[in-house]
Every structure is written in structure tokens, then in C-alpha cells.
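User: Sequence recovery, please. Input:
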């Protein structure tokens, strides 16, 4: 099961894509960083945060190998590997 922090980050990603979808990963990262109440202190690097965001998307997108069959939330607009994601 996901930690509270992961669930909070997942909710943030969904809210970003509710406003505008699809978006490039770079814009999703930027949106996450702009959320004021989100505690990102556990990420020691930008790369760490970005990897976590990507992993959460992959875990919740049925075209990805990481998908576990729950909450198919995201889709790849232009095909996996292009870094552009939308909200299902």
C-alpha cells in the first residue's frame, strides 16, 4: 500500500492534470513544486522528486509495466516513453 506521502503526491498530480491535460512531465514536475502545502523535504534532489512523480504515474497507468491493476488514472497521450501524460 502507498504511504500517506505518496497518496498526497498522487492527489497533487491528479489535480494538476485536472486543470490541464495532457501535460509534459516537465510541466507536471513544475506544478508539483509550486504546491505550497506539499512537504518535499524528504527528496534530497530534484532528480529524486522527478523519479517519484514518474513512478507514481507509471504505477497508475495501465500501459506501463509497473501498473498493478488498481486505479488506472493516467494515459500516455502520444505513446509510452514520450513523457506526455493525461488524466483518464
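Assistant: Recovered sequence (88 residues):
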Amino acid at each position: 500500500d502507498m504511504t500517506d506521502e505518496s497518496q498526497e503526491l498522487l492527489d497533487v498530480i491528479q489535480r494538476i492534470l485536472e486543470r490541464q491535460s495532457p501535460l509534459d512531465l516537465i510541466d507536471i514536475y513544475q506544478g508539483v513544486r509550486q504546491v505550497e502545502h506539499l512537504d518535499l523535504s524528504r527528496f534530497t534532489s530534484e532528480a529524486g522528486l522527478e523519479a517519484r512523480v514518474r513512478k507514481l504515474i507509471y504505477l497508475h497507468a495501465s500501459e506501463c509495466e509497473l501498473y498493478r491493476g488498481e486505479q488506472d488514472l493516467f494515459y500516455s497521450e502520444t505513446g509510452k516513453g514520450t513523457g506526455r501524460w493525461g488524466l483518464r
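Helices lie at 4-19, 25-33, 46-59.
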